[in-house]
Amino acid sequence: MKKIITVFCLLLFFGAANAQPASEYFPSQTGFEWKFKQTPLDSGNVPNPSLAFYRMDIFESVANYEGKLANIVPTKTGPLQSILFQPYSDSLFYYTEGTNGFEYFRINNIEPFLFALDTSGIVSNFSFVDFFTSLQDYYSTYRFASGVGTEYTLTQRDTTLIINSTGFYFRFKYLGKRLQDQTITTVQGNYNCKKFLLQWKIIYYIVPPIIGFDLFTTNDTIWIAPSNWIVQDIIPANNVDLSLLGIDPFTIPGLETKLTDEIVSVVENEGTIPGAFSLEQNYPNPFNPTTNIGFRISDRGFVSLKVFDVLGNEVATLINEEKPAGTYEVEFRPESSIRNPASGIYFYQLRVGVPETSSGQAFVETKKMLLLK
Q1: Pick the CATH number of 266-371 from 3.40.50.620, 3.40.50.970, 2.60.40.2550, 3.40.1050.10
Q2: What is the DSSP letter of 283?
């Protein structure tokens, strides 16, 4: 028996010693960019492309954050038409140590949901915002040397909630699990990924802490590729039944996050089709009441020239038809196409290619303009 235990321990030791360092999964140079398309999933986990939005992350620097030398990754989300011009609005923080990848948990994304629970009046002696804020910390979420199927606890906290003068005993758990490696196909090619499942669980104990059941569980599946870090992230929809707490059943929509090649910068366009197509800066700019937009196409194609507000809402279609090669100029008069147009930034986007599809797209470029009233 001792020999069996000794061999088992040696296998574990050498397996961990030979595991790939977590640092090899994170990009080695600052300036690395991630471009994602994020598509909501309905209650049946069916993607809704009409509600899709976009996200951009950039590996900006390595600096101290909350006591750790962290890889700092500013992030922003928004509509396709304006995301290139938006400022980065938040940051993600990672660091690696041995075979573990650490991520700083923050409540930013779930704070509105927690605030809604706090203001519902259901629980009088408990603040969900304060509770989850107290859990903000670095966690070794990605354990690359962990055995496939092995679940590990990242944090655990017990508390009692008073609801309608009755005490309910709950346990909050943040769990991780390494799943079977998987090769996935993306717009950037195939990646052989490490795959992880992260879960938040709320366990209600009828007889604490012996007899209980899972009241609520979130599932977040993440794919991590060498030198690329996270390349895919899928959170399925969650149909939540908290009738025990006096809360009507509700659904939290899911979210599918995948790499995209739809976010195209001006530099990338010029590099792929030099001199073939061009979208000019509008003039005058700033403008009131009208401005002119010029563009050139070198081949016959379906041309779409549209205007969007700063939230990504389409406010005007200036051209939407097939046109021969040539140089064009279009006048944009907000008063004639927008009801009560407001001062501020607008975006205009030229697309040349196959109508109503992204395949065969010859050219896409977006520029911004400023209306002053």
Answers
A1: 2.60.40.2550
A2: B
